[in-house]
Design a protein that fits this description.
Helix content: 40-55%
Shape: globular
Bound molecules: (2S)-2-hydroxybutanedioic acid
CATH superfamily: Bacterial extracellular solute-binding protein, family 7
Strand content: 15-25%
Number of helices: 13
Number of domains: 1
CATH class: Alpha Beta
Number of strands: 10
Radius of gyration: 22 Å
CATH architecture: 3-Layer(aba) Sandwich
Distance between the termini: 79 Å
Length: 328
């Protein structure tokens, strides 16, 4: 009888272990933008690829539009194991490293191709490890695009921005950038931007085309100036604890799926920016102001002192390496 009980117990334990092994690993992917953006589309593609290839072993749940966490909370939540992946903009890592602030320096990159070259360079790839000490792993860069200035009055030259309140992401570089214009920068979560603009609690903002269009900012901002003054890109991140806890073969498959999803997101980001820019113009809700070369130079001259201000924090070598990427 005792033997039988032991045998039953063994079978039960084996079944239990098998059941535990069969329970899928869930990756919650949290982000703040809409689904019809490069990040939204990339996250859905990642889910499809993972679930197709790791059928039953890994599932991915995507939470767009700040449904699960805003970007200011998501990294803390990741370290607590409440979410496994996110792709905050590079402007939102300041609490974890000052090196990524290089991406916020105004007028540093001449275009998105230069941004891409820097990200793929040895220095850019090393920056993916800049969060390691804080328990986060950078898995890759994802493009959105260049930022444009919008406001409820036309902004042609820097003096037009003076005294106006602008929403910014949580970045001291961006704060300094608007202070150089004698404007008033306010750090606010992305989820609040539309209401802040609509109620005129703030006067303006800086966003890439896809964020303006997908969140309807153009409906509450009658003027958008095509400044292309800075970049808004992302780092896809996970926690070291989660990542290292995956079996090697699973981790490799997940990484492969992510790399492919990122390549897809990066490939469509340029077309999306152009299409959304055109859709904004076609909507007739907002005037897109194209500035002359002389006007652009005024913005450069006004904002560029920020580079010197942050040179020590970011590192002169890093700024130099980023500038090299403009050479092609
Ligand atoms: C913002 O807060 O403006 C952006 O970081 C949103 C995003 O994820 O593109």
């Amino acid at each position: 009888m005792r033997l039988l009980t032991a045998a039953v117990a063994t079978v039960a334990m084996t079944l239990g272990a098998q059941f535990a092994a069969a329970a899928p690993i869930e990756i919650k992917f949290s982000h703040v933008v809409a689904e019809n953006t490069p990040k939204g589309k990339m996250a859905v593609r990642f889910k499809e690829l993972v679930e197709e290839r790791l059928d039953g072993k890994v599932t991915v749940s995507v939470f767009p539009n700040s449904q699960l966490f805003g970007d200011n909370k998501v990294l803390e939540a990741m370290l607590l194991g409440d979410v496994q992946m996110a792709a905050p903009s590079l402007s939102k890592f300041q609490k974890y490293t000052t090196q990524l602030q290089v991406f916020d320096l105004p007028f540093l990159f001449k275009d998105m191709a230069a941004v891409d070259r820097f990200q793929q360079s040895e220095t850019g790839q090393e920056l993916l490890n800049s969060l390691r000490k804080k328990g986060l792993v950078g898995l890759g860069y994802l493009h959105n695009g260049m930022k444009q200035m919008s406001a409820n009055t036309p902004l042609r030259v820097p003096a037009d921005a003076a005294g106006k309140k602008f929403r910014i992401m949580t970045s001291d570089v961006l704060q300094a950038q608007f202070e150089e214009l004698d404007a008033v920068p306010l750090k606010k979560p992305f989820s609040e931007v539309f209401t802040l603009l609509q109620t005129k609690a703030i006067d303006g903002a800086e966003n890439p085309w896809s964020n303006i269009y997908s969140k309807k900012f153009h409906e509450v901002q009658p003027y958008i100036t095509e400044t292309n003054h800075g970049v808004l890109d992302y780092m896809v991140v996970t926690s070291a604890e989660f990542w290292n806890g995956l079996d090697d073969d699973v981790r490799a498959e997940v990484k492969k799926a992510l790399d492919e999803a990122i390549a897809y997101g990066n490939q469509i980001s340029g077309e999306q920016a152009a299409a959304d820019r055109q859709a904004i113009i076609d909507s007739g809700r907002s005037e897109v102001i194209e500035i002359t070369e002389a006007e652009r130079q005024q913005w450069v001259d006004a904002m560029k002192p920020v580079w010197k201000q942050f040179e020590d924090e970011i590192g002169a070598d890093l700024i130099e390496a980023a500038l090299k990427a403009n050479e092609g």
